[in-house]
Amino acid sequence: MNDRSASDKPLIMLVGMGDLSSRVLTMLLNDPATSRLVVAGRDVEAIRRRANLARFTAANLGVHGTVDAVHVDLHDVDATAETLARVRPDIVFMGASLQSWRIITGLPPAVFDELDQAQFGPWLPMHLTLNHLLMRAVQSSGAQPVVVNAAFPDAVGPVLDAVGLAPTVGVGNVANIIPALTFGFADELGVDPAAVRLRLVAQHYFSHYVPRAGDAGGGSYHLDVEVDGRAPSRDVPHTDVFGQLNGRLKRLGGVDGQLLTASSAVRVLTGIATDSGIHAHAPAPGGLPGGYPVRVGRHGATLDLPAGLQRAEAVRINERCQAADGIEHIDADGTVTFTEPEMSIMRRLLGYECKTMKLADSADHADELAAKYRAFAAVHA
């Protein structure tokens, strides 16, 4: 299927065809540089129809891409490895989770607000489990694709890195807040947004909290601002800009907000596909915790930290912010310890509790968490 003589464009495989992957597929097909694709999922007929819709839409806009559809059930590691060995994608985009982050947004607002105080960390098993299965299959396949993960990469990356199975890089989260911050600083400084360059080190909590509350909450971060490559003419208090994100720069969230995540993903995927070296922001480059400014090329993403900020300190900043997201620490063997305040909310509302989780137990915890959430949601339907 990966006939390099037919095209020198890289072959991109999208695993899991939910809302995010569908948006990513449409965007990729509209760029000739990224229009050679294969979609993978359990229902081949359904994903083929989704792929055809995106392919025909791109054709209307003058781009005639190719899309194949293949069966992949991530729970069957051996079969997934065989498919990867046969297809041999250059890039794999991982868009599958056992439960989307947005599921709880369907709860009544007051109930959602209460459960949302548990932050994202306790939901880690829902995103880690399938990534672990995929990366085991990638390792077994003999193929060596660049793997780009969209499912809670800030924590999934460092957990899997502990066992040598980290995806190459993540997408979303830290990247999703950059456009609004850019417009906010441009407005405060009276300059063209195109002249503003930000370098932000921050974990998922920060990018989730600031647009909703207009401040950084309990999240640690490092933010560097340049205008036309130099320090701005005056210092702008970060709080002045953060407040705009919950004011005049407030955007749609939920399912509609997936459009922004998709564009963040496509920026990274295109940078890899074209070996562009583009500036971007991405979580978990090389399995690091949280998100960073990066340069993106053929082999993934490399850190692009501002002057004066060392890698070790950037990692410490994200580890501190990770605790605000409900993850106290990740051990060298990938064992995760969750924070008590956030887990106590899960215990009180769902009857679910997990103080520590070994990687091998992730699937069992995901099953328990899914069952307890279904029972909770049924009461509040």
Q: Your description of this structure?
A:
By secondary structure, the protein is an alpha/beta fold. 45% of the residues lie in helices and 17% in strands. β5, α6 (153-161) and β6 form a beta-alpha-beta unit. It has 13 helices and 14 strands. The strands form four sheets. Strands 3-2-1-4-5-6 form a six-stranded parallel sheet, sandwiched between helices. A three-stranded antiparallel sheet has the order 9-10-11. A three-stranded antiparallel sheet has the order 12-13-14. Among the domains are: 12-170, NAD(P)-binding Rossmann-like Domain (Rossmann fold, 3-Layer(aba) Sandwich); 323-373, no CATH class. The protein has helices spanning 19-29, 44-60, 77-87, 109-116, 124-141, 153-161, 174-189, 204-213, 238-245, 254-274, 311-324, 340-350, 362-379; strands at residues 12-15, 36-41, 66-71, 91-94, 146-149, 169-170, 196-202, 221-227, 278-283, 291-297, 300-303, 327-330, 336-338, 356-357. The longest helix is centred in the last third of the chain and has 21 residues, at 254-274. The N and C termini lie far apart (45 Å). The model is unreliable at 1-6 (pLDDT under 50).
